[in-house]
Amino acid sequence: MSSFTCPNGHASTEADYCDTCGARIGGAADAPAPTLVDTPPVPKGEECPHCGTPRAGSARFCEDCGYDHTTGKMPQLTEVLPVVEEPAGEWTATLFADAAYFALNEVEGVTFPADTGERIVTLVPPQVRIGRGSTTKGTSPEIDLADTDPGTSHNHALLTLNIDGEWLVTDLGSTNGTYINDEDQPLTAGQSRALKDGDQVHVGVWTTLTLHAP
């Protein structure tokens, strides 16, 4: 086995560095020094001139405000907005004591009223209840016939405006029924019917409501 002597007099089996003290033995080549590579600094991202948000790489549009880095302009809204239609006018109903309807009922002991004046009510969506107001029964219909028609039930009928803009009438299980126009049969309890301009709804023993479209 070969033996090498280091500068400090130690015998070493290694030819380059002493395996006792680590001193370099003459003739051993120096290890090359590592080469340092300068890393260029990362450039700071370009800022949007409109809002100051850093630009994402080479993206054309600012992620925050939409600024166009290519044209140097802000995007313009070209979408045609829908025209907002003016709301339709209000439906109304004319209420009156109908002698012809009263004659068909043939109610004994009930006299047709002498004062047969009309009144007009506005149908306010979404619902208008027809009936007789009562504090004891807790009813307060929008069309209150407590003082004008004794044949009306406390919860007689319901007018409802649906999503298609149609008014519907529904019988609420009334005693004397809800009739439409000249039909012989009343609506059954819970049955609904769509109404149009000029339709008539008969309730109680003599009350008729004539609907008027806007």
Name the descriptors:
single chain; 214 residues; mainly beta; 5-stranded antiparallel beta sheet; 5-stranded mixed beta sheet; 1 helix
Task: Describe this protein's structure.
- The chain has a five-stranded antiparallel β-sheet. A five-stranded mixed β-sheet has the order 6-5-7-8-10, with no helix packed on it. A two-stranded antiparallel sheet has the order 1-2.
- The protein is rod-shaped, with a radius of gyration of 48 Å.
- The chain contains one helix and twelve strands; from the N terminus they run βββαβββββββββ.
- The protein is 3% helix and 23% strand.
- The chain is mainly β and 214 residues long.
- The termini are far apart.
- The mean pLDDT is 83.
For the secondary structure, the number of strands is 12
Identify the strand order in the major beta sheet.
4-3-12-11-9
Could you tell me how far the N terminus lies from the C terminus, measured between alpha carbons in angstroms?
119 Å
Rg over CA atoms, rounded to whole Å, is 48 Å
Describe the sheet with the most strands: 5 strands, antiparallel
Fraction of residues in helices? under 10%
Shape verdict: rod-shaped
Mean pLDDT: 83
Q: DSSP helix count?
A: 1
Strand content: 15-25%
Structural class determined from secondary elements: mainly beta
Order of helices and strands: EEEHEEEEEEEEE
Unreliable residue stretches:
none
